[in-house]
C-alpha cells in the first residue's frame, strides 16, 4: 500500500502569516494606548491651567491683586508679586508640577523666559480688564511643567 504524503507547507505559511498579523496588531495596540495616555495627561494639565485662571478671574480679591500689580511681572520674582496670588498658584498646582503666573500688558507679549529648557510646558491665558472700581487691562498667563 502506498501512503499518500500530505504537503503541510501551505498550513505552516498560513500560521506564520496569522502570527505576523497578531504581532503587528499587538504592537499597534501598545502604541495607541501610550498615545491615549499622553493625551489624557495633557488634557488634565490644560484643564487645571484653565481652572487656575478662572479662579483668579472670579475671585475679587485675587483679581484686585492681579490688577494692582506692576506689569510685566511673574510669580518667580522674589518681590513685587502679590503673595495671595503666589499662595493660590501653589495650592492649585498638581503635585510633581511647577507653575508660573505671568501678568503682562494686553497688547504685549507674555512669553516664558528661558528658565525652563527641554521640558514640556503647558500654557493658558486669560484677559482681565477691571474690578468694580478699577480699570486696568491685563493678560494673565500660566505656564505649567513637570518638576
What is this structure, in a nutshell?
With 147 residues, the chain is an alpha+beta fold.
Task: Give an account of the 3D structure.
There is one protein chain. This protein is α+β, with helices and mostly antiparallel strands. It has 3 helices and 4 strands, in the order H-H-E-H-E-E-E. The protein is 47% helix and 22% strand.
Helical residue percent? Answer: 40-55%
DSSP helix count? Answer: 3
**Helix/strand order:** HHEHEEE
Neighbour order of strands in the largest sheet: 1-2-4-3
Class based on secondary structure composition and strand pairing = alpha+beta
Number of strands: 4
Rg over CA atoms:
28 Å
Give average pLDDT, whole number: 80
* Silhouette: rod-shaped
Attribute tags:
single chain, 147 residues, alpha+beta, four-stranded antiparallel sheet, 3 helices, rod-shaped
Detail the topology: elements first, then pairings.
Layout lengths: L8 H50 L1 H9 L4 E2 L8 H10 L4 E8 L16 E10 L4 E12 L1
Antiparallel strand pairs: 1-2, 2-4, 3-4
